[in-house]
Amino acid sequence: MKNEKKTVTLDDIAVGDQFVSREFSLDAEQIKNFAREFDPQPFHLDETAASQSLFKGLAASGWHTAAITMLLMTESIPFANGLIGANVELSWPRPTRPGDILHVKSIITDIAPSKSKPDRGFVTLQIDTFNQNGEQVQKLTPKVLVFRRGAG
Fold it and tell me: Which of the chain's termini has less CB crowding within 10 Å, N or C?
């Protein structure tokens, strides 16, 4: 028997609804592997170079933090038909480091049903990624397309 998670539609959600992800552990090798492929800068690749940079130590690429956040979002936000982005604001208030254990907290801040397409609407979320000390490492404010029950 297949274990399917319950999904929700525009009809099932309200402003203030919250979703919390599992934890994700990050180590130096993961940071370097991601950087080699997608963001090959010295402060993501080499501890010595990183110690002499603005970051004062090895730091994950912001895009790596964003990718981990996306993984945790897709696992914890149960929108039917997936997370279909329409717009986003993104910031990294502090670096993500080797040894960090990340988790994501998502809150629905706005729901705007479409006026021209009644089978859908746009949902704005505040998605914060925190490390094990409760320090925010990423702030993401996306607007996503969410369908009504029976649509999409």
Answer: N
CB of 22 closer than 8 Å to CB of 72:
yes
Phi-psi label, residue 48: left if phi above 0, alpha if psi -120 to 50, beta otherwise:
alpha
Q: How far is CA 4 from CA 41, 54, 75, 96, in A?
A: 40, 45, 12, 32
The span from the CA of 28 to the CA of 30, in Å, is 5
Distance of alpha carbon 56 from alpha carbon 58, whole angstroms: 7
Q: Is 68 exposed, middle or buried (0-12, 13-18, 19+ CB in 10 A)?
A: buried
pLDDT tens per residue, range 70-98: 999 999 999 999 999 999 999 999 999 99
- In a 10 Å sphere around its CB, with 0-12 CB exposed, 13-18 middle and 19+ buried, how is residue 114 labelled? middle
Q: Which of 99, 104, 145 is nearest to 128 (CA)?
A: 104
Instruction: Give the span between the Cα atoms of 124 and 86, in whole angstroms.
Output: 10
**Taking the model in full, what pTM does it have?**
0.94
